[in-house]
Amino acid sequence: MGTPRVYRTTGIVLSRFDLGEADRVLVILSPEHGKIRAIAKGVRRPGSRIGGSVEPFAELEIALARGRTFEVVSQVQVTHAWLAFRDRLESAATAWYLAELAERAVEDQEGAAPVYAILRRAFGLLDDGMLPGRVARWAETQLADVLGMRPEVERCAECDRMLTEEDGFRWAPSAGGVVCATHPSPPGSAPLSLPALKLLRAYRRLDVEAIAGLRLPAAVEAEVEEAMRRFLRAALEREARSLAFLDEVRARP
User: Do 90 and 132 meet the contact criterion of CB atoms below 8 Å apart?
Assistant: First the structure.
């Protein structure tokens, strides 16, 4: 029996771009099928049946017809929409950033259930009002684990010695995490404070509800944010495009 021409899947729209006068190409994350590129025909015309459904920040039940270049969207039903955070600009910009990370982390037509679960949970946390920066750090940590590139924060990434509070630390993405002061500084490394190291460990050890309740100096959160950005930039071999928009939003009064 051949492969069915039409199939259904749950999905979240990660990105989109316009095609022609009325169509739109969607990049959809599916737990079963990974990253799917699909065309929504006529979706930009007034009165389109599915125009309001194929927006980002919603979980969809989608019927797709197989095509040569793109799948074709034939039916869409919204099963869950995260509406609250769309009106909070920093939360929405963070959601775009996390969607881009998910898009880069998953191959086309490859199962992606763990990444899908992380993104879905992150959108829920943003909708519930958790601080966007902490949602981003939690999701970054979880994605790094799922992709098998978890940064080392317990032992020295060079000598595997357990780190102590008396050590001096450097954050070295090229080495895979924290390096103790007994080694020459790896290329691209930078000093890391003890409070920042403790926070990096907290993102690994604590559940997300405990992370949401932490009281932290802004300088420590900023140091950890920069550390994770540098680590992911090295791991994914380029910086996320959406970070420029996120930084612009956060710089506004």
Answer: yes
